[in-house]
Amino acid sequence: MKTKKIAPSLLSADFAHLERDIRMLEQAGADILHFDVMDGQFVPNISIGIPVLKAVRRVTSLPIDVHLMIETPGLMVDAFVDAGADNVTIHFEAERHLHKVVHQIKAKGAQVGVAINPHTPVSVLEDILPDLDLVLVMSVNPGFGGQSFIPNTLDKLSRLRKIRDERDLSHIDIEVDGGVKIDNIKAIADAGADILVSGSGIFRAKNPAQMIHEMKALINS
Ligand code: DX5
Ligand code: ZN
Fold first, then answer.
1. Ligand 1 pocket mutation, candidates 6, 38, 134, 144, criterion most atoms within 8 A of CB
2. What is the pLDDT of residues 71-96, one digit of tens each?
C-alpha cells in the first residue's frame, strides 16, 4: 500500500508570513505544499498566482502541488510549470480540450492531475485515467477554505480506488480536498485517498505542527 501523505493548503497560511509558515510545515513533516489558484471566474474568489508561486519555490524544496481553479487552464499551465510547480492539476469542468492540456503539462515535465467538482461523476475520467498521475476529488465546492466536507465524497473515493485497482493503474494518486479535519481524516484515508489536503484543519489548530503529526499518524495507522 502507498504511504499516505498530508498536503497543507497554503490558502489558509498567513500571507504576510508565508516563509515562516512554510518552515513550520517543513519541520512538522508536511509531505507536499498545496497551492490554490483561483481566477474569479471558475470560482467566485481570487487567490494567488504565478509571482507568489515563484517566491514559494525559492524558499522550499517540498513538492508544490498547484491546483488551478481557473477557466481554460491550457492557456496558463506552461507558465505555472516554469514558475516551479511539480504537479499541475486542472479541473475537468474548466477545460474543453482536456486530453491536449494533460499532455501539454506532461511535455513540460510536470506531473499532471485532473480535479472533479462534487457534482461531477468519477466515470467521466474513464478514458483519460491512464494518462494521469493524480485525480483530485473535491469534497467541497471549490472557492473557499473552511467549508464542510460533503459526505458523499467517501463513496466517490471508494469507487475511484476500486476502478484504479481493477484497471491496474496503481501509479495514480487519489487526492481529496476540502473540509478535511482531524475528526474525519481517518475515514477519508480509509475510503481511498492517498493525498489529503487540509487548510483550515491545520492552520486554525492551536498547534498546527502538532496537528500535522497527529494527522499523519492517523492516516497511516
Ligand atoms: C478550496 C481549495 C482548498 C482549500 C481547502 O477551494 O481548493 O484547497 O484550501 O481548505 P479547507 O481544508 O479549509 O477546506
Ligand atoms: Zn485546493
1. 144
2. 999 999 999 999 999 999 999 999 99
- In the residue annotation, 177 being an active-site residue is answered as yes
Please compute Rg for the chain using Cα positions.
16
User: Does the active-site annotation cover 39?
Assistant: no
Number of domains the chain contains: 1
Q: Which of 21, 31, 36, 194 is catalytic?
A: 36
Q: Provide the residue range defining the domain that includes 16.
A: 5-219
Determine which one of 65, 173, 177, 194 is catalytic. 177
Say what the alpha-carbon torsion angle 197, 131, 86, 54 is, to the nearest 10 degrees. -100
Ligand nearest to C-alpha 179: 1
- In CATH, what number is assigned to the domain containing residue 195? 3.20.20.70
Which neighbouring-strand residues pair with 175? 136, 195
The pLDDT tens digits for 115-164 are 999 999 999 999 999 999 999 999 999 999 999 999 999 999 999 999 99
Contact 205, 188 (CB under 8 A): no
